[in-house]
Design a protein that fits this description.
Elements: H1 2-29, H2 31-86, H3 88-106, E1 112-117, E2 127-132, H4 139-155, E3 166-169, H5 177-193, E4 198-201, H6 211-216, H7 221-224
Parallel strand pairs: 3-4
Antiparallel strand pairs: 1-2
């Protein structure tokens, strides 16, 4: 019995040695090590692949939703186009008012006013409202453009129905002398036609202190003057400076 146990033990020892020797051979060739690393890399790649598949599905869903929203936007813009077409008579009337004011102030009718929709995948703008006047783009002419546009809103037969009747301009007449005179004369004309509006403006004294300018004016400045401010009599009684 003892001899049998001894033989079995020797057999086990021999098998362990063979097993260890085979493991050493595998390790020396790097097969086992590479296999472990390969399995690790495979798992990492598999996770990355699953993540990318998920992101791609989200992208496809977002693209589909984007197309759906753009289609909805296009349909709503078409409705806006129809509404603009329905108001053509008002737009034409407003343009006529702009043209008449422009002719009185600028001496010609070289201006335009348009309202159109914008259907773009990149722009956030939906409706483009554009007024162009003669030789615009400069500081002074663009101020004149604001004056013409605001006056058209105030005095057009359609837009004035929703207008509060109050308009305030601060230092808008930083323009050439002829434009200033024509703008003030336009106001004198409107004062003779309407009594239901109030227009408040600031005007530097040196713009109208020359006798030649006063002779050309139809608007009585002294009659309409409400307040006068100087370096000694400051507005709000405070020293202030624009930053």
């Amino acid at each position: 019995m003892q001899n049998e146990l001894y033989e079995i033990t020797e057999q086990i020892r021999g098998l362990d040695e063979q097993y260890g020797e085979k493991l050493r051979i595998i390790d020396q060739k790097g097969v086992l090590k590479n296999l472990k690393n390969s399995l690790k890399i495979y798992n990492q790649k598999n996770q990355e692949y699953s993540k990318r598949i998920g992101l791609f599905k989200e992208y496809e869903h977002a693209e589909k939703e984007k197309k759906t929203l753009f289609l909805k936007k296009t349909q709503e813009i078409l409705e806006l186009d129809n509404e603009i077409d329905e108001k053509k008579n008002i737009l034409n009337s407003f343009l006529t008012t702009v043209l008449s004011i422009h002719e009185l102030i600028m001496g010609n009718k070289e201006c335009s006013f348009t309202i159109e929709t914008v259907n773009s995948k990149t722009s956030k703008q939906i409706v483009k409202i554009e007024l162009r006047i003669y030789d615009d783009g400069s500081h002074s002419v663009d101020r004149t453009k604001v004056f013409i546009y605001d006056m058209a809103l105030l005095f057009n037969q359609h837009t004035r129905k929703r207008h509060p009747g109050l308009l305030i301009h601060d230092n808008i007449f930083d323009v050439d002398q002829d434009t200033l005179v024509q703008s003030l004369n336009f106001l004198a004309m409107q004062e003779g036609k309407y009594q239901d509006f109030q227009y408040i403006l600031t005007l530097n004294r040196d713009k109208i202190e020359h006798e030649e300018d006063l002779n050309q004016l139809n608007l009585d400045i002294e009659k309409h003057k409400v307040a006068t401010f100087t370096k000694d009599n400051k507005f709000l009684r405070k020293n202030y400076q624009e930053k």
